[in-house]
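Ticket #294: bound-state structure for pyridoxal-5'-phosphate.
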Amino acid sequence: MFGAKGIKIPAMDIVHLNGQLLAADKAKISVFDRGFLFGDSIYEVIPFYQGKGFRLIEHIQRLEHSLRAIQIRTDIDWQLLLDNLVTANGGGNLSVYLQVSRGASEERSHQYDADLTPTVFACCKPIKDIYADGADSVEGIAAIVTADLRWRRCDIKATGLLPNILVLQQARQAGAAEAILIRDGILTEGASSNLFMVENGVIYTPKSSSEILGGVTRELLLQLADEQGIPCLQVDIEYSRLLTADEVWISSSTRAIVPVLSIDGQKIADGNKGRLWQQMFERFIQLQHRMMHG
Ligand code: PLP
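RESOLUTION: The complex was predicted; output attached.
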């Protein structure tokens, strides 16, 4: 891909801004953009494998849910926008970040005019095809459990991620890769993932509510468990129960399902990847394969 003076632009540098595809360093937004000033914006992260969006419809539906919830109206064809961006970046295995803010006003004010034009930004970055390398290549992680200090509308994928960022840093400082959040004694989800545990062959996950994000991967796991006749229950999970589980997993679009092998320094079961995790991961591989080739 070549820029104005015939200079080669690295493929990943093509971004979408307000209806245009352009080099990342040419994309500019107003300092009065409400996304910048107030975090008055929402986002999505969507994996593409070999140029095809994985669970694209579900991601677009969640994007529309977030937009409706904060009353931003647009008639954008999201699928077209995303496909054009991915093509401009050479296809392949990419994760697309898409952000919609309420737009820029003329001055900083908490109140907004309903007729603002939303700012739409999207960019890509290369990702590993998690499924291609198989279950053996997936490494389990350590996690910590810490207080869930977020607001109570976590079903909206809002860009105000300060609590998530701080707990993730706390996890890293403890040598862990994810922070699992707890509110009023009940586990909610990870800083950027949903939570699952296994007890005597039954899968458990926190109930769907506005206290957690309706994860696209979470929904898919519920569906795959159902198809295989594995019971999967949505319940309140307490800390002590998690520590004595047979398996703990987290799920997200760019990481699929990841086994959690220790929590707060305590091993989960024998500290190895579990049997049900492996079974579910293999189901994922089959599904992804069907999507890419079928
Ligand atoms: N929960 C939170 C707070 C997240 O940020 C994410 C993903 O980023 C998830 C759950 C998993 O959602 P999905 O499977 O749709 O990626």
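RESOLUTION NOTES: The chain has two domains: 11-127, 135-293.
TICKET STATUS: resolved
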